[in-house]
Task: inverse folding
């Protein structure tokens, strides 16, 4: 029997060296391209073994791929020696048909991180800033830095309440943004920005600005999608991923949806790589499973509601999330609580510098969330040692995290 990948990764050394490599070796600039997987991993305190314990730290879906997707993967494995290039477009075509979009408007990638980075690289620059929300998903910031573009972070409106994007302030932040990034629902808060606000941005953004609307978490909520603006021919690129509700983060599949002339600026400039055929097969099977989204939305939504209600009953406030993650105000430096939880092998999400007393919690399985309640109660009551200042996490030290603050 060959060794399992988990056993090969047990020391964490290879991944740590990856970060050193990533920090110094980006071909485009001195800043690496980082996405949720890197950022979540990097935030794990150095003393902890990331290969064990409960992980509610990367907004993954513990359910994994649906049964039909698993079967589709098994069926296609014998053909794994081939590129099967013609199959690459099949999920995009299926999606386009389901959404009433022209197939030319949808391109598949191995996850949505690539088109996210590429859009920022293609449309921002020295005089064309990235405007983004704070706290918000950090990946576009890294890409903007690689593009040499200024980054303007605009605090969320009503941070103690609805925590929506402050669209008017975002529009006022720069006369000529290259990209205005709207993550809806937002990572890390799980909150939605109402449709009228998005519409306002679509109608009032400068004519050369691209609105990058990231719908990684759209399936968890009742908010209508922004695909309509793509259909209207606006300067909008919508991102979708199979990493969240579809449970395929490790398989890698996502879409960029936009006008062909916008997509060409991404694809022609940066090229398109072949896709893993397992992910192509799984994505297509997932799209065909009409019960997947409503079933998982309800399961995860129920677990989220119960967890948040319990936290409130204990006196803690959270963001009003409609997604698979929320921010939890722990009333003291979040880093300390994160480290104390990690010492109990309970891995929760990272801290955003704008909200240092809050931790991002991903909604896991009901059992995982019960274990979280127990560990959190122990840590917050000080029943066990743990609220010592966290040692500087070595994984963070391995790359220039300070770029984000
Ligand atoms: N966009 C947002 C807002 C995310 O939170 C993530 C991952 O967590 C992604 C995009 C990228 O996901 P992936 O590259 O796995 O599709």
Result:
């Amino acid at each position: 029997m060959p060794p399992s990948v988990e056993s090969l990764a047990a020391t964490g050394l290879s991944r740590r060296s990856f970060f050193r490599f990533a920090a110094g070796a980006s071909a485009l600039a001195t800043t690496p391209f980082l996405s949720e997987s890197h950022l979540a991993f990097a935030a794990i305190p150095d003393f902890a073994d990331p290969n064990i314990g409960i992980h509610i730290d990367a907004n993954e879906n513990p359910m994994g791929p649906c049964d039909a997707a698993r079967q589709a993967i098994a069926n296609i494995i014998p053909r794994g020696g081939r590129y099967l290039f013609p199959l690459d477009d099949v999920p995009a075509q299926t999606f386009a048909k389901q959404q009433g979009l022209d197939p030319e408007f949808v391109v598949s990638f191995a996850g949505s991180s690539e088109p996210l980075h590429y859009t920022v690289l293609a449309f921002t620059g020295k005089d064309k800033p990235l405007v983004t929300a704070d706290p918000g998903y950090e990946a576009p910031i890294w890409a903007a830095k690689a593009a040499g573009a200024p980054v303007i972070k605009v605090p969320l409106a009503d941070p103690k309440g609805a925590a929506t994007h402050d669209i008017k302030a975002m529009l006022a932040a720069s006369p000529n943004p290259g990209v205005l990034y709207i993550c809806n629902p937002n990572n890390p808060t799980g909150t939605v920005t109402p449709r009228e606000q998005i519409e306002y941005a679509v109608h009032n953004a400068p004519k050369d600005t691209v609105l990058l609307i990231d719908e990684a978490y759209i399936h968890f909520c009742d908010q209508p999608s922004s695909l309509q603006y793509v259909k209207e021919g606006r300067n909008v690129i919508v991102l979708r991923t199979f990493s969240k509700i579809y449970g395929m983060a490790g398989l890698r599949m996502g879409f960029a949806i936009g006008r062909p002339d916008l997509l060409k600026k991404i694809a022609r400039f940066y090229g398109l790589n072949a896709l893993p055929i397992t992910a192509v097969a799984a994505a297509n099977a997932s799209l065909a499973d009409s019960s997947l989204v409503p079933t998982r939305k309800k399961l995860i939504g129920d677990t989220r509601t119960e967890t948040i209600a319990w936290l409130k009953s204990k006196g803690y406030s959270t963001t009003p999330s409609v997604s698979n993650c929320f921010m939890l105000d722990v009333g003291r430096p979040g880093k300390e609580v994160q480290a104390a939880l990690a010492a109990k092998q309970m891995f929760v999400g990272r801290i955003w510098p704008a909200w240092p007393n809050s931790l991002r919690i991903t909604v896991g399985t009901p059992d995982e969330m019960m274990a979280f309640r127990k560990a959190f109660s122990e840590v917050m009551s000080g029943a066990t040692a743990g609220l010592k200042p966290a040692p500087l996490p070595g994984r963070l030290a391995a790359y220039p995290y300070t770029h984000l603050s």
